Give the backbone structure.
Amino acid sequence: MKRQLIHATLALATIVMVPASSFALTSSGNGRATSNDYLTRTKITVCDTSADGRAVYTDYRRAGSDNLNRLSETAGSGNCESSTSTATINKHRSCANVGLGRPDNCNPYVYPK
């Protein structure tokens, strides 16, 4: 009985334990796209949240760099794309690619703390 209880407790702990890095810390979204950074601020994810046929992307900057990076998701609604690095993310925004020579639909930058 004691051995069964130990195994049951370990199985429950395995099911409910979730790494802290899996929770979004800062989010930028506009109904078509969302971008999220996570507690470690080293992972960025962009997701397409609208079945409108438009690709989505996030523009983001990592610590120690002046370069603005772009991560695109082109597979369609309900899909996400992620990028992980050892450098933390300083700012990001999500955008929907409008095309047709018009400006893209972008959210303001968010600045994770």
